[in-house]
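Issue 218. Parser rejects a valid record. Input:
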Amino acid sequence: MEHMTKITEIHLATVYRVMMKRIAKGYSAEQLSFLIGQPDEYVAGVEMFQAPDYPIVVLKRIAKALEERSFMDFLPPVDYGETVMVQMESINYGFKIVYVCGVITPEGTKELRFMLEEKFDIEAEIDELGLLAVRYAISLLIRHGYFCKPRLPLEVFLAINKFLKKTVNPDHIKEILNELCEVESELALTQVKKANKGCLYLETSLLAHERD
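Output the parser choked on:
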């Protein structure tokens, strides 16, 4: 996949820093999108410069998800205010994706700005025990009224990590939360979408009150 567009230097630097941290932490673009309450393709769209840069409210969520001290760590120390033409390319090898970002100079030549490699463990086995632990933790949260107010996936992620004393797989949380949105029981949840907050999860029994 390849995309070319004109952006600011601060936009380029911010996307690069978030992308580098995301890959280093081992999260896919889809996993990070889920944690911050956005559609699956959101982060990938920003990284390929096919979508606008991250707003501050989203950068703050990303900083928490990636365990950064502040969203300011994603911003360059100096805003040069310059505009550049960038060409972003992603090459999928199945077990890894290579991202190549180049800047097109006024003379029409391409200069490499950065190259990142994201590897995948395509032979990884399903962690049934990990999934079971997340299911148990979420059921406890529901029974103790945690979802009495709409919760961002990132909030759930951090709460479960604290409870289990380890970092869990975001895919497990996503699977269980979405599963609970399809059942009819006292543990049922509902997705609630709010402007500037993204996709949240709320106890289904409280949905009518939330709308009021």
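Fixed in the parser; the record now loads. The longest helix spans residues 9-25.
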